[in-house]
Write a structure and sequence with these properties.
InterPro entries: NAD(P)-bd_dom_sf, Polysac_CapD-like, Polysaccharide_Synthase-Rel, SAM-dependent_MTases_sf. The structure is a single chain. Helices cover 48% and strands 15% of the residues. The strands form 5 sheets. A 9-stranded mixed sheet has the order 9-8-7-10-11-12-17-22-21, sandwiched between helices. Strands 3-4-2-1-5-6 form a 6-stranded mixed sheet, sandwiched between helices. It has a 3-stranded parallel sheet with strand order 14-20-19. α12 runs parallel beside α13. The two termini are 55 Å apart.
């Protein structure tokens, strides 16, 4: 193992230098042997002294010729017939070179000696390389071999075993095959076993890895088989056929084509239809809370393009803040925008007030929120503390600091909410509306999103992950629909709508018709190159499994509370006119909420929801949703 370590640490250039040195040092040995053969005895010192100039000059000639022919660059494992032929030419050139050098020095050694020298030198060069290769192989044999099962005893599997037997670090121990006609047979000295024998083989033959060599099997089946083997603690690798590796076919194992979220909108993206808005942010100091999230980070990029004076990144996650700061700092140099990363929570009132004051913030975009429905459902106190109390802390501090504009990022789940996440966002809206009614200097507004395609926790990453694993794709109900928008659309909507705000406004985007999630699942499966497995196509690749609506989940989301909506300067942006609580009601609700959070009292929290949120009584009266299987959670 020590010798192997030395070999592996040598650089390629060092290995080439060692081979060249070996060949040069063989010159005096070959000359000595050639003279001995010619004289039938080893030459004495007097004879050797007469040729003392010949040896060093011939060694130099050997090095020059070998470098010119690149013989020293041939790897030991690749030293075969063609390389031996090059060595023969090299030796053939050395003989006449030695004769010319010897004659130029006034010597009279017979020419036959140099012919013998060429032959002896070639023999030594080839033999020394064989010895070096043997030493290297012995060093590699000292390391433990990787013991592998080959799943698939067909042509590809047999080719794989033949190739692996030339590798000193891998040892095939058996075949596995689903074909009962092959089970029990012996191929290339290895037995073919049924899949049921895998556990026994892993134990008795100390298997380290399973190699899937089945190019004709559908990719979904391979993914399912791979996942099953990995669940049993096995390392699994999949490979295409050798013909495919040579470029004569389509690779079997290929990554799923990147999903472009906009392709599933069912309408043309509105990015190009949301121009303007940059003037509002140019030369201003802008703070974005939740800057490291999907929406927050896109807001940062688009705000940066508006050339603000300062961009404050307010984020709770250290890793997300670090990555975003690294990305934006590089872009901000040319734009001359100051990037200020702030690590902290919007619930930290002293920190919020200090940041707003120290950096003279003029516009706040509040995207920080807990948005994953199942997690907030199971942790309502943490959800309301962050989403409601955090919003109140930041929004109130913004008003006290004289911030010009405050924009809350909300969700369509806040409209007559059926889950605690939606209820928390509705209470956050009520807080902002109340501050808007009492504000003199700060313009408060809200932007209500539908589902954002491609954001963390959204349905597309979930479906994509399930498809990568070979399915099934889980869906709660066949008739579920949702409004969708892309991340760039969502960020652009915030920027444009913020310029229209006059105080207490709720903006929504005209997103066209809602998308049926079942159809979205089918599109994603088919766009990945699979077929849906259902009653009409039982031989398909991936199943869409319906799990039933969860408690609090809607079949169809809404964007507006009531029917009152008016237009804005942009035809794709609507302004909702909705009822809101009075100042006294908001104050009472916030007092009760703070008490419930302080006591970490779920029941008291639900009582607040029942009292102050539209439809909250029905939300509280239902049983708390239970999450028994993470795979059953659709991010819709």
């Amino acid at each position: 193992m020590e010798m192997l370590g030395i070999i592996t640490r040598l650089s390629r250039a060092t290995k080439q230098w060692l081979i060249l040195s070996n060949d040069v040092l063989l010159v005096p040995v070959a000359m000595l042997l050639a003279m001995a053969l010619q004289l039938n005895e080893f030459p004495d010192s007097t004879h050797m002294m007469r040729n003392w100039m010949l040896i060093p000059v011939l060694m130099a000639a050997c090095a020059v010729i070998e470098i010119g022919m690149n013989i020293h660059r041939v790897q030991l494992k690749a030293y075969e017939s063609r390389a031996i032929a090059l060595s023969a030419v090299h030796a053939a050139l050395l003989g006449p070179s030695g004769w010319l050098i010897e004659r130029a020095g006034g010597g009279n050694t017979p020419g036959a000696t140099f012919v013998t020298f060429s032959m002896v030198y070639l023999l030594l060069a080839v033999s020394s390389r064989a010895v070096m290769l043997k030493l290297v192989l012995n060093a590699y044999r000292q390391q433990p071999k990787l013991r592998v099962l080959v799943y698939g005893a067909g042509r590809t599997g047999q080719q794989l075993v033949a190739a692996l037997r030339t590798d000193e670090t891998v040892r095939p121990v058996a075949y596995i095959d689903d074909n009962k006609m092959l089970q029990g047979a012996i191929m290339q000295g290895l037995h073919v076993h049924a899949p049921a024998a895998i556990a026994r083989l892993v134990r008795t033959k100390r298997v380290d890895r399973v190699l899937l060599a089945m190019p004709s099997v559908p990719r979904a089946r391979l993914a399912q088989l791979s996942r099953k083997l990995e669940e049993n603690g096995l390392d699994v690798q999949t490979l295409p056929s050798f013909a495919q590796l040579a470029g004569n076919g389509v690779p079997l194992v290929e990554q799923l084509r990147p999903v472009v979220p906009g392709q599933f909108l069912g309408r043309a993206p509105l990015d190009a239809e949301l121009p303007g808005g940059s003037e509002t942010y140019r030369g201003r100091a802008v703070l974005i809370s939740g800057a490291g999230g999907s929406i927050g980070s896109e807001l940062c990029r688009q705000i940066l393009a508006c050339r603000p004076r300062r961009l404050v990144l307010f984020e709770l996650s250290e890793l997300a803040l670090y990555k975003l700061d690294q990305e934006l700092s590089a872009l901000a140099l040319d734009l001359r925008v100051e990037i200020v990363p702030v690590l902290g929570s919007v619930c930290d009132a002293p920190l919020v007030r200090r940041v707003l004051a120290d950096h003279e913030v003029e516009i706040v975009l509040h995207a920080a929120a807990y948005k994953h429905v199942p997690l907030v459902e199971q942790n309502p106190v943490a959800g309301f503390a962050n989403n409601v109390l955090g919003t109140h802390t930041l929004a109130q501090a913004a008003g006290e600091a004289g911030v010009a504009r405050f924009i809350l990022i909300s969700t369509d789940k806040a409209v007559r909410p059926k889950n605690m996440m939606g209820a928390s966002k509705r209470m956050a809206e009520l807080v902002v509306q109340d501050l808007a009614n009492r504000s003199v200097r700060t313009i408060y507004s809200m932007v209500r999103f539908g589902n954002v395609l491609g954001s963390s926790g959204s349905v597309i990453p979930l479906f994509h992950d399930q498809i990568c694993k070979g399915g099934p794709v889980t869906l709660t109900h066949r008739e579920v629909t949702r409004y969708f928008m892309t991340i760039p659309e969502a960020a652009r909507l915030v920027l444009v709508a913020g310029t229209f705000a006059t105080g207490g406004d709720v903006f929504v985007l005209d997103m066209g018709a809602p998308v049926q999630i079942y159809d979205l699942a089918r599109q994603m499966i088919e766009s990945a190159g699979y077929m849906v497995r259902d009653e009409q196509n039982p031989d398909g690749d991936i199943e869409i499994r319906l799990t039933g609506l969860r408690a609090g989940e809607k079949l169809h989301e809404e964007l507006l509370i009531g029917e009152n909506q008016i237009g804005t300067p942009h035809p794709k942006i609507m302004l909702a006119r909705e009822a809101h609580l009075s100042e006294i009601e908001v104050a009472a609700g916030m007092k009760a909420l703070r008490a419930a959070v302080a006591e970490s009292d779920d029941d008291a929290l639900r009582a607040v929801v029942a009292r102050w949120v539209e439809g909250g009584r029905a939300l509280v009266d239902r049983p708390t949703a239970r999450i028994e299987d993470r795979d059953q959670i659709p991010a819709t």
